[in-house]
Every structure is written in C-alpha cells, then in structure tokens.
Amino acid sequence: MDPLYIIVIVALVFVGLWLARRAAALPAGADTKSHAANAKSATTRGPAREAKLAARADAEAKSEPAEEVAEAGPNESRESSPGAGRRTRDVAGLRRGMAKMRETSGFFGRLKQLLGATKAIDPRLVEEIEEVLITSDVGAKTTEQLLGSIRDGLQKKELDDHSRVWAALRKRATELLDVPGGGGLTAAPPPMVVLLVGVNGAGKTTTIGKLATKLQDQGKRVLLVAGDTFRAAAVQQLQTWGSRIGCEVFAGKENADPASVVYDGIQHAVESGHDVVLCDTAGRLHTKSPLMDELRKVHKIAQKLVTGAPHEVLLVVDGTSGQNALQQATEFGSALPLTGIVLTKLDGTAKGGVVLAIAHERRVPVRYVGVGERAEDLREFDAGEFVEALLGNAQDDLAS
Ligand SMILES: Nc1nc2c(ncn2[C@@H]2O[C@H](COP(=O)(O)OP(=O)(O)OP(=O)(O)O)[C@@H](O)[C@H]2O)c(=O)[nH]1
Ligand SMILES: [Mg+2]
After folding, report:
1. Distance separating alpha carbons of residues 231 and 238, to the nearest angstrom
2. What is the crossing angle of helices 140-155 and 123-135, to 10°?
3. For the CA of 284, the nearest atom of ligand 1
4. For residue 210, is pLDDT > 70?
5. What would the pLDDT profile of 138-172 be if each residue is shown by its tens digit?
6. Cα dist. 8→13, 19, 20 in Å?
C-alpha cells in the first residue's frame, strides 16, 4: 500500500477520535460549569437565606407576644387568655396562696383527715364531710350538690376506696365552679372599660392595681379612673398604685360626682388612646341604696362614649366574708349587670368554700382570685386549677 495512503488513513482516524472525544467532553465540561455556577449560587444563597430565615424567626419571636396580645385581648392571659398571652398553670403557686385552707384546721386539711385511709367509707363519713363543707362556707345548697354524687356512689357501691371519694368530690366541685365566662377579662376593642364595684374594704382599689399590673405586663396602655370620690384617701390610694406600677391615674376634683369623673376619664382614654380603663368606685354597705343608685348612674354614664362599655362589671368580694359574700352577689347583681366576680383575700381564710357557693348559687363566673396584697397576687381563675390547688389531684397522696 502506498505509504501516503496509510498516513492519510491514520490521520483521519486521529481526527475522528479527537472529534469524538471533544463531542463527549463538551457536555461534561458544560455540566461541570453549571454545577460550579450552582454551587456558587448555593453557597452565596445558602448563608444569605439562612441569615434571612434566622432574621425572620427572630422577628417572629419578637413579635409573638404582640400577636398574642392582639389575639387574646386584654384578658387573655385568659393568662390562657389573658396571659395576654398564654396562661401558665401554677397549681403550686395557688396552693401557697391558699395555704391556710391546707392547714389541719382548714377546709382541705379537715377533709384530708376524714378521707384518711383508716376511715370506713359509709354514710357516717358523708355526714362528716358535710359538716366540713358547711362550716367552710360552702353553704347548704352547694354542699348538697357536692355530696349528691357521693351518696349515689355509696348506694351503688361504686365508691369503695378513698381515692374514688376524692375523685367524685373533685369532679363535682369542678363542674360547679366551671361557670361559662370564667377566667380573665374578655377581649374588647379599645378602650375597654371595666367597672369594679363592691362593699367597702372588699379589695376593689387593690384589685385595680393588681389588674393594671397584669395588663401592662401584656403591653396594654391602662388608665386608672378614681371614681371613688367618697373618701379623699381613696384617690390617694389609687395614685399610690399608679406611681408604684407606672400607670396613669385620672382623678376629678375633690367631692366631684363619681359619674362625671368616670365620664371624663373615659373621654380622656378615648382621646389619648388607652387600651383599658379601670374605674374604681366607692364602697359602703351594699344595703345602702344611695350606693346602688350611685353605681347605676356610673354604669349608665360609662355607656355613653364607647360602644359596648362598660365591657366588664366586676364585683369584688372579700373571700373571708363567708355567706355575706353570697348576699353581696345578690344585691349588686340585682342593681347592675355583673359580668364576673373577683374573690379577694383567699390567703386570709381557712375556709374558702364561698367560691363554690357563689359559682353554684349565683352562676356568676369567678374571674380572678386575690391571694395576697402584692401586685402579683391576683390570679386568673380556672376551675380545674383551683380544684387541684384546693383538693389535690389523683397523683397526690391525699390519704397520708
Ligand atoms: N391579704 C390580702 N389582702 C388584700 C387582698 N386584696 C385586698 N387586700 C387588702 O384589703 C384591704 C382593703 O382593700 P382595698 O383595695 O382598699 O378595698 P376597697 O374595696 O377599695 O375599699 P374601699 O375603698 O374602702 O371601698 C387593703 O388593706 C388591701 O391590702 C388579698 O387578696 N389578700
Ligand atoms: Mg377603694
């Protein structure tokens, strides 16, 4: 064969091989390039995105309380709510507040002795429980309600051990206390107007100070209105709370008409953008009709400036006043549309059964309980938590 012919063939083979390799290599190279580009964009986008996400999470975390407040409204913490947030259960804290009831001579202490494992479970035991309940301010009607299911259970031979008797008592107590609308304030568009009423010394002004503390902690702008113009010292007491907790107080002139002070106070709140207006009112004996007339007038005028106001009318009742508290709930309830009860001074009583009596016999929801004089000693009421603090739960060794 002609050598030139062979050289041409070899050259053609090489050229063909080169072209084939190039054709195979090009896509591979292009791919690598695009991976590199992607890798670059991934590395630049990755941290940027992470940083962005982190910033967003941070912003969300920061804005969370505000969102909770907006959703929950002023009361929410229904501390489930108005924690204006979220309410955290604190049975141990409530128990500490109600420590007197847990002493040997207190409501719980006496029940615990009776329901000790050594006592026989028979009708005699029910009679003894009845005595504890009656003498702990539960009242005859409510005591009957509490014991009904225990008597039934005994008859049907279902309550054969002490823990079952406790459980039956707890269950019925929770049912009686669980009046719809209990717990913290119900959300309302600002300004939300709240009237606090009650006999003298019940704890209205102190409750206002505590409630304002709670609401301010939830980010609310609160105005305290000194609607108790009956005593000069009442205005001062509210102002002391105001300066202690950093809350604005609206006070009228000395001896001003309480209704006009409340009107002017609400107007001030509307103009200056407060979220919640807490109106203090005068005490005095609930049987005195001038007080009721005055409160009706205050209530009427509180309706004038803001739609739906007053959004809450809370009756403040001294928890140590026993069956008197029931009487107060009746008197005030017939003069004003009460939206709830605040039961104060539960730290000062070994009885405490009046909570059950009011909830059951008056069907007014308990909104808060006071367990001390400090700003933080106001607790949003929750039937389950209250019963657990008072009567324990299934895990407690109640018989020991
Ligand atoms: N231990 C205890 N004391 C309380 C509680 N709530 C209020 N007090 C005290 O009860 C007393 C009367 O409370 P006030 O808030 O002045 O009662 P008020 O209803 O405004 O009384 P008037 O203005 O006279 O009608 C004060 O010494 C308070 O510190 C509570 O939950 N526990
Ligand atoms: Mg007062």
Report:
1. 12
2. 160
3. 25
4. yes
5. 999 999 999 998 899 888 888 888 888 989 999 99
6. 9, 16, 18
Read out DSSP for 243-286? HHHT-EEE--STT--HHHHHHHHHHHHHHHT-SEEEEE-----T
Query: How many whole angstroms from 234 Cα to the centroid of ligand 2?
Result: 5
**Which amino acid is located at 91 in the chain?**
V
Substitution candidate for ligand 1 out of 100, 231, 332, 344 with most atoms within 8 A of CB: 344
Single-letter amino acid code for the residue at 6: I
What was the pLDDT predicted at 184?
Answer: 94
Q: How many CB atoms lie within 10 A of CB 390?
A: 25
- Give the sheet arrangement for strand 276-280, strand by strand: 248-250, 222-226, 276-280, 192-197, 312-318, 340-344, 366-370, 378-380
Pocket test for ligand 1, best of 94, 100, 206, 381 (most atoms within 8 A of CB): 206
Integer Rg of the chain from CA? 34
User: For the whole prediction, is pTM greater than 0.90?
Assistant: no
Ligand 1 atom, smallest distance to 202 CA:
19
Tell me which residue of 393, 303, 361, 342 sits closest to 141, measured CA to CA: 361
pLDDT above 80 (res 205): yes
pLDDT of residue 38: 32
Long-range contacts of 115-118 (CB under 8 A, 24+ apart): 115/162, 115/165, 115/166, 115/398, 115/399, 116/162, 116/399, 116/400, 117/162, 117/399
Cα-to-chain-centroid distance, residue 390 = 18
